[in-house]
């Protein structure tokens, strides 16, 4: 029987073993290389950019938003697993140490991006807000303290099922604090806020753990959501087998999927169109890629280049949507036994797939028109986009599905 | 002569050829018949069911549903049967209504029939208000009700049911039993695996007692009683005796 005291360190090492495996894959992929280039190149342009800024630039407001985001968002990683609801529940009293370590871990982990943002903004701050480094250094110390306070309060919130009121209070206080700090408010304003914060902590947040029960399911949900966030990130590079998809109902799009007639030939058209709209991030990725493609077309504003960019966008989308075939988990549900031949399933999937790519090409063509690309080239985008979609769908994708089926 | 909906002959199968899990099973399910498949955990019930569904390939023997073998046409074979699994698997991204709709469409129901049957099933299982819900918000029992509704919506010739009672509320159990009786009258065959022997004894027409992958006994309750030579013995007692390996029919 394992001791409760060593549970945290074992969970943590298991967690990092898993995580580092994905991080290793990540660092070996082209992704890291792209990131280095971005950092080096971006750093140079950033320096140049800062030098040219007037001192009236609203750095304070930008930093307020950035710091607030990284400070107020304080989900605690407990590394709990669903089985713990059965096996650890009776040990809740003995788990105080475990949860304390979880809080410290979350605090350290979440302070790292905060410090990064602080460091990146250093030249900006010195140039446009205050030339004294000591002022900005002191800011960091206070930011870290506020982060710690947020973690402590976020833990107390876990004793409630509905903690929105408390979350708002914590958010507003943090926001005020960071704001006063950045705008260099007089000391008594800060002192007053400290008093309010201490009062809030002692009389509102602290009593929660005294008068309520720990909500294990809330803890588990927070943990699973964070794990899922990482999985989704890793899934961009490699296949994460245990990934759980969250569902977004998007009921306002329901009618779109009802256009397919009632009958066995439409089962999988409806199935995949609903999977696309609701499951995982397919719809989100689709929209985001269109936006990115549109922005790049607009920025480059070339004629032939806009056609190339559009095709690349369609290609990237196609690669992101292709896993929908398997990750709809058709084979794990009732559809496994549906009396519908494999060829019909594949055909239905490819119909939806082709439609989405063609629609994307059309949208990109329209957007190009709007941002001033000559209409002839907009038509070219549409035509080349459709040809590419067709070749990708019925050449590459179709063969890939066949191979998987065997 | 009774019409045979399901006909299993000398079926042997399992995951590895060296270690078959089921040996030489032969049995039938006739039209209008509810047959109970009874056995301990690991007796081979699920393996038998997987072979019938065509999820596993037999090493030996044949299976026919309505005279069709799966080798002739998977689609044709499967269109004659519906399966209610022990662990309900639903699609996270589809609502209850969409699950029912997909099943109706997949099994070739016309829209009028679907719209006629759906509300009846919903009210039987008290799920009218859940039509637009996603399974993420369902309890295990509710998910099971969805699977049951999908099967009875289709009204196939053969129902294959795996341990339906665990997790269902009493209303659900009663609705399910009533539906099975209805479908029997309409001429369907039902193969049901279960551990709830008192209910099985009350509702099943015949029983197949599996023990270590072989059929230890099969027949109606009277036939079973006759073979153990005790006119009053319950299914429970026979089952326990078989499960202990006592070979009660030799007494």
Based on the coordinates given, report the CATH architecture of the largest domain in chain B.
3-Layer(aba) Sandwich
What is the overall silhouette of chain A?
A: globular
Largest sheet of chain B: 6 strands, mixed
Rg calculated over all Cα atoms of chain A: 26 Å
Q: Detail the poorly predicted runs of chain A.
A: none
Multimeric status of the protein: heterodimer
Order of helices and strands of chain A: HHHHHHHHHHHHHHHHH
Helix content of chain B: 25-40%
Please tell me the total number of domains of chain B: 2
Percentage of β-strand residues of chain A? under 5%
Largest interface: A-B, 27 and 35 residues
List unreliable stretches of 5+ residues of chain B: none
Distance between the termini of chain A: 46 Å
Beta-strand percentage range of chain B: 15-25%
Gross geometry of chain B: globular
What is the CATH topology of the largest domain in chain B?
Rossmann fold
**Tally of structural domains of chain A:** 2
Superfamily at the CATH H level of the largest domain in chain B?
Answer: P-loop containing nucleotide triphosphate hydrolases
């Amino acid at each position: 029987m394992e001791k409760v005291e060593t549970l945290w360190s074992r969970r943590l090492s298991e967690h990092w073993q898993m995580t580092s495996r994905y991080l290793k894959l990540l660092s070996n992929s082209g992704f890291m290389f792209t990131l280095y280039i971005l950092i080096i190149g971006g750093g140079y342009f950033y320096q140049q950019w800062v030098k040219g800024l007037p001192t009236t630039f609203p750095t304070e407001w930008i930093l307020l938003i950035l710091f607030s985001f990284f400070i107020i968002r304080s989900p605690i990683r407990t590394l709990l697993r669903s089985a713990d609801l059965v096996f650890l529940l009776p040990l809740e009293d003995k788990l105080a140490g475990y949860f304390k370590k979880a809080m410290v871990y979350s605090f350290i982990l979440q302070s790292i991006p905060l410090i990064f943002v602080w460091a990146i903004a250093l030249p900006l701050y010195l140039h446009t807000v205050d030339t004294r480094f000591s002022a900005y250094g002191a800011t960091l110390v206070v930011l870290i303290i506020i982060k710690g306070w947020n973690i402590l309060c976020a833990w107390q919130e876990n004793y409630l099922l509905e903690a929105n009121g408390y979350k708002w209070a914590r958010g507003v206080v943090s926001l005020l604090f960071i704001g006063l700090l950045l705008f260099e408010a007089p000391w008594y304003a800060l002192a007053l806020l400290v008093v309010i914060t201490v009062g809030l902590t002692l009389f509102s947040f602290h009593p929660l753990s005294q008068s309520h029960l720990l909500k294990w399911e809330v803890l588990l949900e927070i943990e699973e959501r964070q794990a899922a966030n990482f999985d989704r990130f890793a899934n961009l590079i490699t296949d994460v087998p245990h990934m759980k998809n969250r569902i977004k109902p998007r009921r306002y799009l329901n009618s779109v999927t009802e256009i397919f007639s009632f009958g066995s030939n439409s089962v999988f058209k409806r199935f995949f169109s609903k999977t696309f709209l609701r499951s995982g991030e397919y719809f989100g990725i689709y929209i985001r890629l269109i936006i990115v493609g549109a922005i790049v077309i607009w920025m480059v504003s070339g004629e032939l280049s806009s056609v190339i960019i559009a095709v690349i966008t369609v290609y990237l989308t196609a690669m992101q949507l292709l896993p929908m075939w398997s990750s709809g988990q058709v084979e794990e549900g009732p559809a496994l036994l549906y009396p519908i031949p494999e060829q019909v399933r594949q055909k239905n999937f490819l119909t939806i797939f082709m439609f989405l790519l063609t629609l994307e090409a059309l949208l990109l063509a329209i957007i190009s028109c709007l941002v001033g690309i000559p209409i002839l080239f907009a038509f070219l985008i549409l035509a080349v986009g459709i040809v590419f979609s067709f070749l990708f769908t019925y050449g590459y994708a179709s063969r890939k599905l066949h191979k998987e089926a065997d | 002569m009774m019409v045979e909906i399901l006909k299993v002959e000398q079926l042997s199968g399992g995951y590895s050829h060296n270690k078959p899990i089921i040996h030489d099973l032969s049995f039938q399910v006739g039209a209008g018949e509810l047959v109970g498949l009874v056995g301990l955990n690991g007796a081979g019930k699920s393996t038998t069911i997987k072979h019938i569904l065509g999820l596993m390939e037999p090493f030996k023997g044949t299976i026919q549903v309505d005279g069709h073998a799966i080798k002739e046409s998977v689609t044709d074979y499967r269109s004659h049967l519906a399966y209610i699994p022990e662990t309900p698997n639903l699609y996270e991204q589809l609502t209850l209504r969409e699950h029912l709709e997909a099943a109706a469409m997949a099994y070739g129901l016309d829209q009028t029939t679907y719209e006629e049957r759906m509300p009846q099933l919903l009210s039987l299982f008290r799920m009218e208000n859940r039509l637009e819900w996603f399974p993420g918000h369902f309890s295990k029992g509710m998910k099971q009700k969805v699977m049951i509704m999908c099967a009875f919506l289709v009204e196939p010739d053969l129902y294959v049911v795996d341990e339906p009672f665990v997790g269902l509320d009493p209303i659900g159990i009663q609705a399910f039993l009533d539906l099975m009786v209805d479908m029997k009258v309409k001429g369907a065959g039902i193969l049901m695996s279960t551990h709830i022997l008192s209910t099985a004894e009350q509702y099943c027409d015949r029983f197949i007692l599996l023990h270590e992958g072989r059929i230890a006994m099969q027949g109606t309750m009277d036939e079973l009683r006759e073979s153990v030579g005790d006119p009053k013995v319950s299914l429970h007692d026979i089952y326990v005796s078989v499960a202990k390996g006592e070979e009660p029919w030799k007494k």
